[in-house]
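pasting for ref
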Amino acid sequence: MLEQCILAAAEVIYSSSQTNLCQGDPSEDPNCTKHRAAMKKVFVTGGFDDLRSRQVRFLEAASQFGELHVLVWADEVINELNGKPPKFPLAERIYLLQGIRYISNVTVWKLPVKRDTLPYPNGTKPMCGS
């Protein structure tokens, strides 16, 4: 299914300040506010229709690079890309994604997207070479 290919479009985005870190590894205490502020933001986009274990594993791996933000496509976007409506309604897909502990934020993406590309939300810049 083409959905798995689209899920591979993850990219690390510039975060805010990297100063005033606690002692230790951010992955050991992701709830520490100082670590959260210093973590990079990772954005993943996709329809997340018919979510499977390999996609959850992908989200887990992506979260290792920083704070994971998911841009889930609206029903209209999936319909435009695939030529058919999603199997599961948007509200159910959001509910499932919010239940995954690796995900910090779920945002609905309503604008048209190109397949295998990552839209940049306002205020983000791609990080090159890291």
